[in-house]
Amino acid sequence: xxxxxxxxxxxxxxxxxxxxxxxxxxxxxxxxxxxxxxxxxxxxxxxxxxxxxxxxxxxxxxxxxxxxxxxxxxxxxxxxxxxxxxxxxxxxxxxxxxxxxxxxxxxxxxxxxxxxxxxxxxxxxxxxxxxxxxxxxxxxxxxxxxxxxxxxxxxxxxxxxxxxxxxxxxxxxxxxxxxxxxxxxxxxxx
Length: 190
Hints:
Elements (H helix, E strand, L loop, with lengths): L8 E4 L2 E5 L5 H16 L5 H8 L1 H6 L5 E7 L2 E10 L9 H6 L5 E9 L8 H14 L6 E7 L5 H6 L3 E5 L10 E6 L7
Parallel strand pairs: 5-6
Antiparallel strand pairs: 1-2, 2-3, 3-4, 4-5, 6-8, 7-8
């Protein structure tokens, strides 16, 4: 992890929100897989979720990637991940892939909180740590994400924190329910 001696950790009531290490990997994977099956209803898809199988190699090893977790005691109850990746075209519009190239774009992934721990401020705290992390990485010029608007609460949550940049519902493809966002990064000290 790059960022010098910066501490990526906050307390939110009885929860610790922190950058993950190897002891959190199995719990984080469980939160992610449960979300795919229980909340999204489509289960694990190797073409979409290959990072979940190798969380350590994807998020813990590269200096400019990170995995954040919310824990209550030893249990991982929430996740957020950052990696260098812009949107892919297809399935997303080509202009978005051009606007957010992989080498200078941080993308938020896997912002999930177990149902029984929602409405406690954990997702907001996890995203806040991710924003702090990205702001400390000189390579990143933007923080991008997209969300499926069919997930209860997802769109209002992201609209409260990020700027919408593309809404696929505005086009002629009514099968896509994706809204793309950018989260403003704090100004880096010169």
